[in-house]
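Notes to self, Acyl-CoA reductase:
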Amino acid sequence: MQLQEKIDAFIKLGDFLKQFSNEFIQKKDNIEHNDLFFDGFKHQLKLAEEHNGWFTKENIVFAIKGWTELLTQANLNKWLEHYSINISEPKQVAIIMAGNIPLVGFHDFLSVLISGHKVLVKQSSNDKHLLPYLAKYLEYVAPEFKGKISFTEAKIENFDAVIATGSNNTARYFEYYFKGKPSIIRNNRNSVAVLTGNETAEDLKNLSEDIFRYYGLGCRNVSKLFVPKDYKFDAFFEGIYHWHPIVEKAKYANNYDYNKAVYLMSEFDMLENGFFMIKEDESYASPIATLFYEFYENTEQLKKKLEEDDNKIQCIVSKDFTENEIAFGATQKPQLWDYADSVDSIEFLLAI
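result:
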């Protein structure tokens, strides 16, 4: 397949997904193979929501909407214009996917196919309904993809390279098991926000999206704040309060109640507002319904600390603090060129 043919196929997939990118699903007349796939994908969405309590309709729709905005001619061209994609001998690339948020492994899936390789996918049991159906749609709009996409629930075998995402523990296993293969191994990372006390009400409201979207389960979710000494949290709590209906969701409420009980029994100091807690803690990974915070006195010292802990951090959310910062409210809207762990997967795939 020529590169433009592959781009065209993913654009058609984006057009198909647009029908499901709003709260009210609406079938359109001009979508290829819609009679064959529309109702089936509606069913897959229902299955995904029923199978995983964290995959609410709102979060699934949010994830799909993000991909519809990325799978356009302009975005795909901008992403790929810096590469020379001309694979003469396609390799079999295995992807071991996480399952923390809907379609979390789609970027790796897209990268392998767009670079010209074959893909072997091992999905998380938490997110197994959506991608195989979308892969089948791709094979219908671009039959050349047939034979280049496969899924397995067994031990992965017969592959030339691997992209694997997991916890810190599974990453160590991956590094050992795949040590003889070209690989990208990803482990736990978290995102942080740096506040100065000069944030507007809009900034803090936007920050709440970085904290609460997907219940905070993504590596791009802010799990820790750095705040100046003597920072008052009143404005912060006001900025996040519109998320209070989140506590009506059973899985979130159970985590909130459990973690609150643990903190109270342990006599930890924490602040809470009836649906969310903040606790002073040096760790980066905070439990669900909790945000850790740490005071700083000197911005240069904080920058040095964040540089030293770079391998633990996915995103830094701030305003005029550091060069590669992300704006408040933008962590869950990455571009195609915003690579996880800052590792360029296309460069990796072109070099194997």
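- The CA atoms of residues 21 and 65 lie 5 Å apart.
- DSSP finds twelve helices and eleven strands in the chain.
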